[in-house]
């Protein structure tokens, strides 16, 4: 064999060896990564080869699967009342990554969760029968919130204070997840939804923190009572009206100039939503004590899962006294989701204990056997029962004869707090309208806590208020939750 042939042979063998090494590396070291790659079409083919498991509300499936015509994806996701439940389900799409419960529990719903496999599935190598996701959502409360919000841009959350069960998660404007399920038509729907300035794909209830305005005064009041700054909600505070922000010549005034806010009690200050009282209270407490109380309620928690990851509600750090005063009325850099403000009311309504909010009660296999059970949620004490009882009483005054009168429900005990938060530079845009509340039925043992934000409505700027816009939505949801 001459030298040229020998060299060519060695080079060829090296190429073959390199190919074998590469193939071995791909098969044994990269196989899992390639299998999990979102662009691997085999995953979509396998996922939609059979019908998916379902998301269940009050014993009824609100999702389904339908056969497709032609193509290699045999089935597609379907939704019943898609717009109504979009903030709960999210979407499962042949073209886009799943979201919300569809995304969190995709392995259960498509049958690839190893807990679903039977011995026969393992032997035959077949995919297991898919499981189901059973939610805590109450269809009546969900519908009441959705219809009450109507054409406004806003959101609402309802929680059972005793169990932590989330009874409703509503975000408007909504969208129909069905429009995104079919790969052949999803692209056009996606462009329309993502190009909509009202952002219907955004879950405003869980994932859009905004200034909570005067609803945050409940947190400041809780801090003052727990710290001993004031002994009761009926003790007069040291609160000049107007209150000059520390280090400035700016006077902080009240929406109602005739309200009895000078040195008002906490009860009166909540009833009339006195800015001077809570701004000075925040300064007297100091930012660290206010932040500590806010964090006990759930602010600054970056791992708040329900099980959807909620965006963090924020109480800021490293402020001067002027900024601390503004946080006392839920402004400056304070932000909160409706979920967070519902948690505040839920903890106070439950005697000072916050039960972890959750919207999934259990995960089951196809036969109904439970894989995960979330019905016994953790609880933690936020404030003493005495503080909770005092703030319940003050919140009832707000509804009975204060700024929250539109939330009154005959035959029920209702407490609440309104809020109107500034929006835009120098409050140049329409303010946000808030209402956070709780209701307890007089004829049954039913309770509920609700928080509502109206981000944008057709109301004139002068008519925007928590009582005028948000309280009626909360009332509708509370009535649906506590009715016999």
UniProtKB/TrEMBL annotation:
Residues 53-133 form the Penicillin binding protein A dimerisation domain. GO terms for molecular function: penicillin binding; peptidoglycan L,D-transpeptidase activity. Residues 154-479 form the Penicillin-binding protein transpeptidase domain. Coiled coil: none annotated. Residues 402-428 are annotated as: Disordered. InterPro entries: Beta-lactam/transpept (IPR050515), Beta-lactam/transpept-like (IPR012338), PBPA_dimer (IPR054120), PCN-bd_Tpept (IPR001460). One of its GO terms (biological process) is cell wall organization. Gene3D superfamilies: DD-peptidase/beta-lactamase superfamily (3.40.710.10), Penicillin-binding protein 2a (Domain 2) (3.90.1310.10). GO terms for cellular component: plasma membrane. This is Penicillin-binding transpeptidase domain-containing protein.
């Amino acid at each position: 064999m001459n030298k040229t042939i020998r060299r060519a042979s060695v080079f060829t063998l090296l190429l073959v060896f390199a190919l074998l090494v590469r193939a071995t590396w791909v098969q044994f070291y990269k196989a899992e990564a390639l299998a999990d790659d979102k662009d691997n079409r085999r995953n979509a083919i396998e996922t939609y080869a059979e019908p998916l498991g379902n998301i269940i509300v009050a014993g009824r499936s609100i999702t389904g699967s339908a056969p497709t015509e032609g193509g290699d994806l045999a089935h597609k996701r379907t939704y019943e009342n898609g717009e109504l439940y979009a903030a709960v389900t999210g979407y499962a799409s042949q073209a886009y990554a799943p979201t919300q419960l569809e995304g969190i529990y995709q392995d259960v719903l498509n049958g690839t969760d190893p807990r679903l496999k039977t011995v026969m599935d393992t032997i035959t190598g077949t995919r297991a029968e898919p499981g189901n996701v059973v939610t805590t959502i109450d269809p009546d409360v969900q519908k009441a919130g959705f219809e009450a919000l109507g054409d406004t841009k806003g959101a609402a959350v309802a929680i059972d204070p005793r169990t932590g069960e989330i009874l409703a998660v509503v975000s408007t404007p909504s969208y129909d997840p069905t429009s995104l399920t079919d790969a052949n038509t999803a692209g056009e729907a996606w462009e329309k939804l993502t190009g909509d300035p009202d952002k219907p794909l955004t879950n405003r209830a869980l994932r859009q923190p905004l200034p909570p305005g005067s609803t945050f005064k409940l947190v400041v009041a809780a801090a003052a009572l727990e710290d001993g700054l004031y002994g009761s909600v009926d003790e007069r505070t040291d609160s000049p009206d107007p209150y000059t922000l520390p280090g400035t010549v700016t006077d902080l005034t009240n929406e109602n100039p005739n309200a009895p806010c000078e040195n008002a009690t906490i009860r009166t200050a909540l009833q009339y939503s006195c800015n001077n009282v809570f701004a000075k209270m925040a300064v007297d407490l100091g930012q660290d004590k206010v932040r500590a109380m806010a964090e006990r309620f759930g602010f600054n928690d970056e791992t708040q899962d329900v099980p959807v990851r909620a965006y963090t509600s924020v109480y800021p750090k490293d402020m001067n006294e002027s900024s601390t005063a503004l946080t006392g009325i839920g402004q400056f850099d304070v932000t909160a989701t409706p979920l967070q403000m519902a948690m505040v009311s839920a903890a106070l309504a439950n005697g000072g204990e916050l039960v972890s909010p959750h919207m999934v009660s259990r995960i089951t296999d196809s036969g109904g056997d439970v894989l995960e059970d979330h019905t016994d949620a953790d609880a933690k004490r936020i404030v003493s029962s005495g503080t909770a009882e005092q703030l319940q009483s003050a919140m009832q005054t707000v509804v009975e004869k204060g700024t929250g009168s539109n939330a009154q429900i005959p035959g029920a005990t209702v407490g609440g707090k309104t809020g109107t938060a500034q929006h835009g530079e120098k409050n140049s845009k329409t303010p946000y309208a808030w209402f956070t509340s709780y209701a307890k039925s007089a004829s049954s043992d039913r309770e509920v806590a609700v928080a509502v934000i109206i981000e944008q409505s057709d109301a004139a700027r002068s008519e925007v208020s928590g009582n005028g816009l948000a309280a009626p939505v909360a009332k509708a949801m509370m009535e649906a939750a506590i009715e016999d």
